[in-house]
Amino acid sequence: MNETLRMIKTRRSVKKYKDVPVEKEKLESIIEAGLCAASGLNMQSPVILAVTDKETVQKLSRLNAGHDTVLRRIDPFYGAPCVLIVLADKSKPTYVYDGSLVMGNMLLAAHSLGLGACWIHRAKETFETDEGKAILKEIGIEGDYEGIGNCIVGYSDMVPADKPRRENRVYYID
Known about the structure:
Layout: H1 3-10, H2 24-35, E1 46-51, H3 54-65, E2 82-89, H4 95-112, E3 116-120, H5 123-126, H6 130-139, E4 145-154
Antiparallel strand pairs: 1-2, 2-4, 3-4
């Protein structure tokens, strides 16, 4: 089987991580894969905030947890040592789609490098708060950016179960 297709078919969401930092070279490769994602009219509106500082990761997890009204997890980042946050410029008409493609590329890149990863929602809500806005301002991200997703990354401390794919999701018009 083609290696790219194998990666797509075997990637799973990881929800438990070892307390081991991810090598900078691997993070840079994941980020590069994200930045190579397709974007509408090649506007390249998404930006990536790479966070490996343990205190900041915990702060972001806490902010995210405050918006978790369904599962109410204490740590929605599952102990991951790194979070790659995708934000996109809301003035671009395809910003949500472009940011989603960045997220998809990063999830696959992490898997291809032997790392676990998972898309954690509520980046939008996190960066709509005063605390979230202050974080962006502090590092120089200005403009009308919306959080698209949090890509948590690290060394897996679990073996994700294979889950069956639902049927009847493709319709052909020949």
